[in-house]
Amino acid sequence: MKFTIAHRLQGRIRLHLGRYAFTAQEAIAMQTQLTAHEQIVNAEVSGITGSVLLYYSGDVETVLLYVRAMKKAELTIPEDTHAVLSMSSEKFVIDITKKVAFRYLLRPWLPAPLGMLMTFVRSVSYFKKAYHRIFYDRKIAVEVLDAAAIGSSMIQGDFGTAGSIMFLLSISESIEEYCKKRAKANLANNLALHIDHVWIVENGTEKLIHSSALQIGNHVVVRTGHAIPIDGKVVSGEAMVNQASMTGEPLPIVRDAGKTVYAGTVVEEGTITVETTALRSDTRINKIMKMIDESEEYKATLQSKNERLADSIVPFSFLGASLVYLFTRNFAKATSIFFVDYSCAIKLSTSLSILGGLNEASKHKMFIKGGRFLEELAEADTIIFDKTGTLTVASPMVKDVIPFGGYSRDEVLKISACLEEHFPHSVAQAVVEKARQEGIEHQENHAEVEYVIAHGVASKLDGKRVLIGSEHFIFDDEETKRGSAEMDFLANNIHEESVLYLAIDSELAGIILIDDPIRETSAAVIKKMQALGLNVVMLTGDSEKTAGAVAKKLGIDAYRSQVLPEEKVAYIQNLKSQGHKVIMVGDGVNDAPALSAAHVSVSMKDSSDIAKSVADITLLSQDLNELANAIALGTALMKRIKNNYRFIITFNTMLIGLGFTQTITAATSALLHNAATVGVGAASVRPLLK
């Protein structure tokens, strides 16, 4: 593609391809292809301006060569982006502009009879909606009230007021529809599978391909800790698959040859080869995403309650109008009540407030699946942190390798790296990286490894059983012998470090000390949580000594050490049974059950695939302060919704009173009501955080 460089900064560059250089669909496809490049962190593409803004890491020339090599004719437009395109901000702005231009620039020049005819024609759609509500839905809802206001205006010969009502209603409808589509698109983006490359098996050989190149019938290999990218049938292997993102159940299920698996679920343990039966646009997770806008599941409880209350008020408007006419016999006084309703403003302001909160969250580098979770953040009284990768940095390092039982230091590191390289855990990666730095080759000459969640790894090496993992796994579960000299050494020399134990044939062969530094922001965030009135708890699988040292440094009063995944779940369920609202923050495979059990769950930027799929909120920054921002955002959002509700009830009640006393005309009442509705809606999307 040809382009000019509009401006350039370190890590950021804007390219210009010319106005209308590509369609909105091509812009989405370009954005998808650009972000697939390993050096492009993010891309923003505009079809109208022809602008491409790139955030990159590494060599800018490599990025520019990649863009130049792209061809518009070869862009692949993902099938599941059409819903996102339909809510395009550009389309929304154009729609509003057309309506305003017709109302204030063209309509004044039309002959009066033609204007009246157009008003009558436009009113037909409102009468149809009211008819459907009454005779099909058996409900007297806001659509019936709108039709009554329009009809009573035209009966009195006031076509100008009828036109004004329909104009303001159409603006409100456009805003509400836009909000719904944006909310759905945001949620779809949160749930979407961001998997760029997959391993497939061809002719007995594994091959890495871009996920967009997957075809029906391809055999995809998925290993421990990774998300399944497609719907399919297992053709070989066996795995424990966590389906929490699909079913909400925290416990994994066995999947082996012949069983069906779904995109978005995660392999907790094992390796399977899956034959592709559905591509991304046809997967079950995409079908679920398409149903989200018809579901109450992700709405805030307060939002659903307000909407139901708003609809329940409508029949009283008709009752009030009937009583006014009965006692006054004044048609104008009676119908003045029709020009004001509570429902539209409550629904619009609430949905806009939720959307504004979700959009603001994304600006603070948080992905939140729905308004319900912001509400639950605001109501929470307890927050539970996992330690490793959450309160500590996500990239631990090997501090020391100590051999026992006649083994050399290099042998301990070599065997450990050989076993750990199979698993996507930060501690395992630290061991592998240490071996690489020291130039220790760890050729695989062991049998197939067995990964025991939250415990460790087991395998066979030269006919001997080899284990690496936690103290509980090595000594309690596997009954490795505890030598007095080794235990004395551990008691006297291990302080704050995390420890990996290597055992061969039931004897301790060595230990690896892991330096797990505390995040710079952790202490400050803990203080913020406590200042917000939250009870802060740390649950970790580490030893009592390590857990106690970290808790003391961070000022955490309540903590538990050597906790297994099922014990974390039990702890959370016990708190819930006592009436507590619980937030769980974790990042690893072993945190998934606890994340599923909490009222609202939070995963970190570098969390495992399974933690991200289960979590209700994902932080896209290393900064834990964003978690405090999320809680502040939820609190401010709930306060705004309640304030909006009070204003709408008060203001519209005042309008009904003024209309009844004929202090203001019906047209003025309608104008003030609709202007206030749009105004409170616009105010609802203002930033919540300073």
List keywords for this structure.
single chain; 690 residues; alpha+beta; 7-stranded antiparallel β-sheet; 7-stranded mixed β-sheet; 25 helices; 24 strands; 49% helix; elongated
Sequence-ordered SSE layout with sheet pairings:
Layout: E1 4-9, E2 12-16, H1 24-35, E3 40-46, E4 51-56, H2 60-69, H3 82-86, H4 89-106, H5 112-135, H6 142-155, H7 159-191, E5 197-202, E6 205-210, E7 219-222, E8 231-242, H8 244-247, E9 253-256, E10 260-261, E11 266-278, H9 284-291, H10 301-328, H11 331-336, H12 343-363, E12 366-368, H13 371-379, E13 382-386, H14 387-391, E14 397-403, H15 409-420, H16 426-437, E15 450-452, E16 456-461, E17 464-469, H17 471-477, H18 484-493, E18 498-504, E19 507-515, H19 522-531, E20 535-539, H20 544-554, E21 558-560, H21 565-577, E22 582-586, H22 592-597, E23 600-603, H23 609-614, E24 617-619, H24 625-660, H25 666-683
Parallel strand pairs: 13-20, 13-22, 20-21, 22-23, 23-24
Antiparallel strand pairs: 1-2, 2-4, 3-4, 5-6, 5-7, 7-11, 8-9, 8-10, 8-11, 12-24, 14-19, 15-16, 16-17, 17-18, 18-19
